[in-house]
Specification:
It contains 13 helices and 20 strands. The chain has about 425 residues and is α/β, with parallel strands linked by helices. The chain has a ten-stranded mixed beta sheet, sandwiched between helices. Strands 14, 16, 17 and 18 form a four-stranded mixed beta sheet that branches. The chain is globular and about 65 Å long.
Length: about 425
């Protein structure tokens, strides 16, 4: 019966991939329910490092069925490149299932993503340039191409024609680009049909039957709460629902099936791309740079340096509320080794007024200045700690302080990138 959700509680890159992988051997299905190859999830198993973009992290667990849900947008070229890359490394990908209702990222949407960013200039979002936003826009605009359309050439051609009628106007008249031929899109998509066909299924039915048979289904988010199109720092967000609600719409699993919601939260904070980030550190040679170096904070997808800052407790509480977090996984505690004292943002100063929760408006959040409390740090290496009691007392106190401020219990603590570098306080399943 259990359907368990994993979501990012900050701005992404919290370590969702590692958390999913830890549970992978104990679950029957892992479903990616939102986003596409804008995601970058790094999983370290012994001396092997895997960077997953489109495939669910469960693909690395031999016993479990990885599912690309209906809420995902699929770049088919990337899908097969990623499959081939893993197969070449000895990973069996043959169980992968893809929803018939997932949308396809067509080449013109990658073009629109990139040129739209250039047109926005200083107002740009800092997207990954993978065509994510324009593909979700087509979906909402009812001009999208779905996986199932590829199996009926006549329908596919009609849909591509319909989409290009509008898209070519935009490309040529607004963005000054060449028009796209229907044939080039259709011909490319048809090259994937034979490989794709055996993977495609009615995934909501499959998952419903799995839950009815008492199987465990893990729903793995891409991106995070503050990048969610409804609940994030709009417009500096991705274009999908990265929160628990999105796990339901993006998989076809009903809210009443969800038994646990695991929020992944870093012991500090990072962000890639544009948009507000109250605790950001701007120094080039101080704490921000040190967090970036110690935490290897460079994007898995685009290689961009991640913006770094201190833990923001109102954000964690907000994520706990929006997602109904039952358990937090606190990641990268080991990265904080070496500071005498560690600031934690406990509230904001918004134009002279103390605000304890996430401000209601975009303007409020842009003006929010962190109000910090300071906690004693530690200098010991945490990477070999395996129980809570192994942690130095000040690190234990830091975790307990964050737990008190963040709205849910901290059940698991990460002290390194490897599967084994994990402290379990409460079982996640
Ligand atoms: P995701 O997008 O949420 O899956 O996160 P990313 O994979 O983009 O970024 C998290 C990075 O931190 C990866 O390189 C992980 O290998 C690494 N990582 C995860 N947990 C820990 C941890 O507890 N300690 C350290 N030092 N690294 C971690
Ligand atoms: P994971 O799953 C961090 C950010 C981009 C940009 C904004 C919109 O690894 O946590 P998009 O290409 O989605 O339209 O870009 O969202 N972004 C991410 N930041 N981690 C991610 O994924 C992200 N996916 C998108 O940097 O600011
Ligand atoms: Mg990532």
């Amino acid at each position: 019966m259990p359907a368990v959700v994993i979501v990012g509680a900050q701005w992404g890159d919290e370590g969702k991939g590692k958390a999913t992988d830890i549970l992978g051997s104990r679950v029957d299905y892992v479903v990616k329910f939102n986003g596409g190859n804008n995601a970058g999830h790094t999983v370290v198993i012994g001396d092997q490092k895997y960077a997953l973009h489109l495939l669910p992290s469960g693909i690395l667990s031999p016993g479990c069925v990885p599912v690309i849900g209906n809420g995902v947008v699929v770049d088919l070229k990337v899908l097969f490149e990623e499959i081939d890359g893993l197969e070449a490394r000895g990973i069996d990908t043959s169980k992968l299932v893809v929803s018939a209702n997932a949308h396809v990222i067509a080449d013109y949407n990658r073009t629109v993503d990139k040129v739209a960013e250039r047109f926005l200039g200083s107002r740009k979002i800092g997207t990954t340039g993978r065509g994510i936003g324009p593909t979700y826009a087509d979906k909402m605009n009812r001009l999208g191409i779905r996986i199932q359309d590829l199996f009926d050439e006549k329908i596919l051609r009609q849909k591509v024609e319909g989409a290009l009628e509008l898209k070519n106007q935009i490309l040529t008249k607004i963005y000054n680009r060449r028009a796209v031929e229907v044939d080039e899109i259709v011909d490319e998509l048809l090259t994937y049909v034979d490989r794709l066909r055996p993977m495609v299924a009615d995934t909501p039915l499959l998952l419903h039957e799995a839950l009815a048979a008492d199987k465990t289904v893990l729903l793995e988010a891409g991106q995070a709460t503050l990048l969610d199109v409804d609940h994030g720092t709009y417009p500096f967000v991705t274009s999908s629902s990265a929160t628990t609600g999105g796990a339901c719409t993006g998989s076809g699993i009903a809210p009443s099936e969800i038994t646990r919601v695991i929020g992944i939260v870093k012991a500090y904070a990072t962000r890639v791309g544009e948009g507000p980030f109250p605790t950001e550190l701007f120094d080039d040679d101080g704490d921000g740079a040190r967090l970036r170096t110690n935490g290897a904070e460079f994007g898995t997808t685009t290689g961009r340096p991640r913006r770094c800052g201190w833990y923001d407790a109102p954000i964690a509480r907000y994520a706990a509320r929006i997602n109904g977090v039952t358990d937090f996984v606190l990641t990268k505690l080991d990265v904080l080794t070496g500071w005498d004292r560690i600031p934690v943002c406990v509230a904001y100063d918004v134009d002279g007024e103390r605000i304890d929760e996430m401000p209601m408006t975009q303007t409020g959040f842009h003006h929010a200045k962190p109000i910090y409390e300071y906690f004693d740090g530690w200098h010991e290496d945490l990477s070999t700690c395996r129980t809570f009691e192994d942690l130095p007392q000040t690190a234990q106190d830091y975790v307990l302080t964050l737990e008190k401020m963040s709205g849910a219990r901290i059940s698991t603590i990460g002290v390194g990138p490897d599967r084994e570098q994990t402290i379990v306080r409460h079982d996640l399943l």
